[in-house]
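Mods, move this if it's the wrong board.
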Amino acid sequence: LASNPYDVAWDGRDGWYVSDAAANAVLHVDRAGRIRTVAVVASMGPFGGRPVQGVPTGLARAADGTLYVALFGGAPAAGGPAVVVALRPEQGRGQARPVAAARGMAPIGVATTPQGLAVLDYGGGPADQGRGRILLVAGSADAGQVLAAGMDRPVGMARLPDGRYVVAETDRSRLRVLTPEKARTSGPETTSQNRTVRAVGS
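Not the wrong board. Structure tokens:
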């Protein structure tokens, strides 16, 4: 790809979905290398986000074939929320129609869980530190429960089978393995146990 591929997710069959942050598009690439456009998100405005470019970043495919796409919206993250949208690209071969699935300050990663959607929120503008967090979101109207906080400009996330999360913090050149505590019914945030894995060569 000659643009800005950010994340990739297996389609469950014979190809992969790719988020193209520069083209504001989600693409599909098959094993033969053929590329087709699944969706274009020129603005987050129609989904309740701030009226700026979508900038698709993190991807996650659910077991039912729904593809979740984090729309980062660029930086600085100001002027309203950004969104995560859901697509059903397997319904026909044309472009899929996105619908809002979650909201945050600047979603940059996403993962499906049995309890809902885990959203990695970048947390602010380029000068902000320690504002990244993971939210557990039950729907587009849910403000989300904070599973982990205090991350410095996180840019990627993977959920492990045991429920822990691996988060990449780009400015610190490290991976963090986070174990969310059990959900609390009161209070705005939860904390997490974590350990750091330094990047090779850092």
